[in-house]
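pls ignore typos typing on phone
magnesium ion + seq
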Amino acid sequence: MSQVRFLTLARHIIEEERKHPEATGELSKLLHDLSLATKVISLEVNKAGLVDILGFTGDNNVHGEQVKKLDMFAHDMLVRAMDHGGHLCAMASEEEEYIIPIPKHFHIGKYVLLFDPLDGSSNIDANVSIGTIFSIYKRVTPDGEPGTLEDCLQPGIKQVAAGYVIYGSSTMLVYTAGNGVHGFTLDPAFGEYILSHLNIHIPKKGKIYSINEGNYLYWHPGLKKYIKYLQEEDPETHRPYSTRYIGSMVADIHRNLLYGGIFMYPADSRHPNGKLRLMYECNPMAFLIEQAGGRATNGVKRIMEIQPERIHQRVPIFIGSEEDVKMVEKFMAEAEANKKITSKG
Ligand code: AHM
Ligand code: MG
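k done
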């Protein structure tokens, strides 16, 4: 018999909230609205393979409606589900250049929602797992007015909640509100997220590394050395590690969260800031992984302490099991120190 209680996401959020008598319930309602939007996205993602039959993206479907690209569908769904809930003052999406202030004709709330509506969407046609990533902050400007860029540009340590939904062999929502990381699996029969993973802890050290090794030539010398180190044989430190790279951040991080390991999207000589976005991808994942006992840095600095300057800014990321992330930092710091010695000499 399972030891995990039969608990819906909605019930879990209410129970968590009861632990904080000062809570107003607004965050719970926000998370509830968000989870509803992701159920609709999940349904649409599951139909993706039928697009060719029902109509190509950009075409009219059998109902005479335009078939939207799935990432735009997910973006629109989230905006439409969240703009009138009364909990938000602004949103920002990876799919939209500017922030989305909540218009005055809706009730304006005290939270800010940032999201990547469908991360890894280039994988959709191959039926690979993709996901929605979200990050929630409290506004910093005065209440009652539409939110501003200032409300959106807060460092990750200010997040009040964050999470992702993975659309995989099943759909799962994993979130933290600063009190551990919990996972819920969507029951497709009755459309509820059910608690399946209570208090997830990432192992202190893993046996998996995830990186796009095709970029090897352009990497920092310390990173090259670290990857070679992981490939060497040493049973005591469980080397060689296994490579697992899906190319879909949510799926790669989800697996490493459960099994342990390190995910990296580093800077390289062609992309000095890496590829992934601080506000939509790195901060929420860093909050989750830290809450699960792991570590997330840009190689030298904690991701969540980076002061954002632009809403779409990119940042290199090393994230996962604490000891693995510390090890890559060490390799890169040593290579930097050697560089300095060589250039002096
Ligand atoms: P996207 O936001 O355009 O989907 O790009 C983000 C994705 C991540 O999910 C994934 O980790 C990364 O891009 C993979 O990039 P690459 O193909 O360069 O390895
Ligand atoms: Mg993305």
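The mean pLDDT is 92. The chain has two domains: 9-197, 208-339. more later
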